[in-house]
């Protein structure tokens, strides 16, 4: 018996020594590199342990994009920066100092795109995963606005509701501000995603909860409920989070099954409003309702403004895909001419502006591929003396702009 105990003790000590040795080896191996490393001057160093790789590069929105002639522009070819390998097999690249912002990036290892294995923070844009990091220098910059700071925090809920118009149960994300339980009634901002997105897009890619927490905490925005629905009328929820299974997300959210309902997102929208008004402490009139959205969601916002002209008082079109009927007009189509000849559209617009909305807000980047659509819309509004506010930024059809637009729009509503 003593021999067995001694043998077992010796085996246990041997195992502990081996585990300890492995742990020490792992702590000292280059595989435990840190990446990304944000340096004091705002530059960022990327590190990747890949001793067998032949070529490694990094791509991301911190790098300029270029066309085949090498001129800087958005919406063109993504530039890659090469990493250099040291004797330990660690590949390294350091950026110039970067402006405050949230950035996304990925590595290319011998032709294979991968996220940074040393960085646990990622985001999904449609079917593309990227690693992310934030640069911030002071409290007033964009990086700080998109960060989780020591301020009172609101809550995010994943909420299922019944859409009778679409004939299905559907899910949305709802933000309630800090102190919601103590308040009496709150205004509601309906925040709509773009093509390929879902009810997770604004909370994950758009940093909506962080933006609202920081704006409300500093008194720049009114405490408000923010409702982020799924804008794909043939889908109940985000990919993998409803009964259709773990399918690959697609650009227009069309992977889901065909539905019996022919209703559009706009036509079914009041199901969302009715649910929110019946389950949350809301201001139940147009003074307490705003709706805004990006790209496809901007098009949905435009359609909602025409269908329900007295339900909302504030409208925000972010890089909006503009259309006059039930469907988005093809790119390059003569949109302005269609607006001038479509009598039903003109009647809708007349009813909308006769209701005197408090804010009709348009924002777009100067290299956005939907830029001309928005020029045509503004031309029509100007012709008819319909009041609106317009913001034009640098850049194209990108989340960097849409986070800016949400930050700006949220400070203008319910004032």
Number of helices: 10
Structural class per helix/strand content? alpha+beta
Shape: globular
- What CATH calls the topology of the largest domain is Rossmann fold
Q: Unreliable segments (pLDDT under 50, ≥5 consecutive)?
A: 21-29, 67-77
Number of strands: 20
CATH H level, superfamily name of the largest domain: Alpha/Beta hydrolase fold, catalytic domain
- The CATH class of the largest domain is Alpha Beta
Q: Work out the helicity level.
A: 25-40%
**Separation of the first and last Cα atoms:** 82 Å
Mean pLDDT: 89
> What's the CATH architecture name of the largest domain?
3-Layer(aba) Sandwich
Q: Could you spell the SSE succession in H and E letters?
A: HEEEEEEEEEEEEHEEEHHEHEHEHHEHEH
Q: Strand order within the widest sheet?
A: 13-14-16-15-17-18-19-20
Percent of residues in beta strands?
15-25%
Biggest sheet: strands, sense, closure? 8 strands, mixed
As for the number of domains, it is 2
Radius of gyration, taken over Cα atoms and rounded to an integer in Å: 25 Å
